[in-house]
Each structure stands twice: as structure tokens, then as C-alpha cells.
Amino acid sequence: MRRRSFILAAIASLSPCPSFAANNPYGSVGVILIGASWCPVCKSAAPVLAALTEPAGIPVLVASHDGRPIAPFPTMVDAANHPLSAGVDALPTTLIYSKKRDTIIAQIVGYKNARHYAQSVSVAIKAAALEGRS
Questions:
Q1: Peptide bond into 59 cis (omega under 30)
Q2: Rounded (10°) angle between helices 3-14 and 40-53
Q3: How would DSSP label each residue in 64-123?
Q4: What is the tens place of the pLDDT at every residue in 41-80?
Q5: Is residue 33 within 8 Å of 85, Cβ to Cβ?
Q6: Which of 21, 67, 78, 114 is deepest in the core (most CB within 10 A)?
Q7: Cβ atoms of 124 and 71 closer than 8 Å
Q8: Using omega within 30 degrees of 0 as the cis cutoff, is the peptide bond preceding 72 cis?
Q9: Nearest Cα to 121, choosing from 109, 130, 103, 131?
Q10: CA-to-CA distance for 70 and 43, rounded, in angstroms?
Q11: What is residue 26's DSSP assignment?
Q12: From CA 87, how far away is CA 130, in angstroms rounded?
């Protein structure tokens, strides 16, 4: 499967059906992207993450090690002052948060390529959503 086709398939698999908006299965899931604006790998991961999360309404918090946003995300928090990202030094690191369990339930370290990253993130988000429903 071509890279673009795979990413579009991953996005479609996460997008909630509009008629079920009130029962959004991803309402209890959030994502934290830990990176830096100068990091070329973080710059590659961020648009893939945005393409996966935005259509599904999944919130993303960017924790930046250099205090600058990572495009396409316009806002960020300082990683040094964030309790979950202060000790993380492998960039990028993506954390999947379960609101129901109030904990991080998955961690994706690095970025091999768009296809691998999209698959890893979508599997982790789906697992978190299933946990949140039980």
C-alpha cells in the first residue's frame, strides 16, 4: 500500500461517524507529543499526528524541549515544566493518555516513517479508546 493511501486509511479508521458524535469513542483519549521545533524527525511526525487526531477530535498537547511550537500545532507547553515530559530525552516521543484511567497507557518512541508511525499511533489510540469504554 502506498504511504499516502496507508495514512488516509489510518485516518479513516479513527474518524468517528458524524451520527455518533455524542458517543465519540475517542472522548477519553488524549495525545502528548514531546519534541522540539529544531528536530527534523519531530517535524516529520507532527503533520502525521495532526492528520490522525484532528478529524477524530482527539486533543494533542505538544511539549516542546526548546519552548517553540512544532508545526502544524500552533501551541505548546515547555517540556521542562511538564511532569510527564521533563525526563524524556528521546525525540519525538508520543504518549497516549487515558482520561478514564488517568494515566499514560502507551508510548511511541521515535519515528521510523509515516506509515509505521501512523499505524503505531492509531493502534495505541484505539486500545486507549477501548479501555475507556469498559
A1: no
A2: 50
A3: ETTSS--TT----EEGGG-TTTTT--SSSEEEEEETTTTEEEEEEES-S-HHHHHHHHHH
A4: 999 999 999 999 999 899 999 999 999 999 999 999 999 9
A5: no
A6: 114
A7: no
A8: yes
A9: 109
A10: 7
A11: T
A12: 28
Please tell me whether the peptide bond between 92 and the residue prior to it is cis, using omega within 30 degrees of 0. yes
The identity of residue 127, as a single letter, is: A
How does strand 60-64 pair with strand 103-109?
unpaired
Amino acid type, 111: Y
Look-up of cell digits 519515528: 111
Cell digits of residue 13: 479508521
List of residues 6+ apart from 4 with CB closer than 8 A: none
Indicate whether this model's pTM tops 0.85: no
* Residue carrying C-alpha cell 499514560: 104
- The pLDDT tens digits of the residues spanning 74-129 come to 999 999 988 888 789 899 999 999 888 889 999 999 999 999 999 999 999 999 88
Q: Provide the pairing of β-strand 103-109 with 29-35.
A: unpaired
